[in-house]
Amino acid sequence: MNDELEIIKVETTNVDTYEQQERAGLDMQISTAKAFPRNLKRSMENAIAIVTVDRETASTCTYSVPRGGKAITGPSVHLAKILAQTYGNMRVEAKVISTDAKCVTSQAIAMDLENNVAIKVEVKRAIVGKYGRFNEDMIVVTGQAANSIALRNAILTVIPRSVVDKVYKEAMQTITGDISDKTKFLKRRKQVFDGLKDTYELTEKEILGAVGKAAVDHITGDDLVVLIGIGQAIKDGDTSVDMAFRPQKAAKEDVKAKNEALLKDEAKEPAKTPELTPEQKAAIEADEAKAAKENKLPLK
What we know:
It is built from 12 helices and 7 strands. The protein is α+β, with helices and mostly antiparallel strands.
């Protein structure tokens, strides 16, 4: 009886084949985008309808972070995603591309398939805090935050600024609500302040300091938007409660953490003895010989 040899053909996908498949898929997406171009007016109307559906959704569309004693406010990653979905004919991607001892690096790509415009953005986030290097779970969370920031920046660079600004403005008006008279404004101001106090255990003074105001009576509608944006930035991991509302405490802790890290590094690596020059070695040997001669006891 003859044994039959079964030959199994194993197909492997090499890098070149994978790249060809990716390129073919991208070409198909571009062709589809050209065949079904976006309606810009309808895209903006759809985006505005989503961001203004309620105050909670609108509140996620802005962020504020402290920079140089001022609050930098702008469209959040949530608004960027809404814009990408409604703008249409876009391809977006974000991923962590490297992790070293001190930071993670995220890379995001946003491509307008219809106009054949692509933007690549990289963002680094530190993974070392006052207690040393983050654990694995916190590194993953930090990487996700970096992905969000990179994705936001890439999308908002590809989509025209006029579209972004119009949708963002509508969201901001929804956030503050109707504050056309003093009674309505005071009610909304109380809601924002009470929300921050209860959520982050803040004092009124700390909240006022975040927008550079000395008294509650000086708060404006724009200040309310900034405060709401700070709350969203904290949720998204763009900033922390201490950095936003207690900057002096955050700065002291940062300095302390750096000093502690420096001391740990010095403890791990003991100081090296500097290498002597030939002249220094010769001088030391001469001194030792002289001392030995002077201290030598006479023979009995």
